[in-house]
Amino acid sequence: MSFSDKGVFGTIGVLIIAFLAIAFFIKLLPIILIMGVAIWGIVKLSKLFESKKNNKFVNNEKSNVSEVSKDDDVFDFEKQDVVDVDYTEIKK
Fold this sequence. Notes:
The chain is mainly alpha-helical. The chain contains one helix and no strands. Helix content is 65%, strand content 0%. The protein starts with a helix and ends in a 31-residue tail after the last helix.
């Protein structure tokens, strides 16, 4: 009898410890999630402010950009060779 009692009490003890651990994590999980989202937001905002701060210097260096006039047509292919490809449609 004493051998079977140790197994039952051990099982009950493990179940109680498991229940307390699950209850502890259920109560802490919302707090952990809120803290994680807050930290993530702070990091994203700090990176956004740093990138805006650094872009001020980058934009000043790009002042000598030439504009394309409307006379220069980028898609004018009259003076270039154009490859004509014949294809056949494959039925499935």
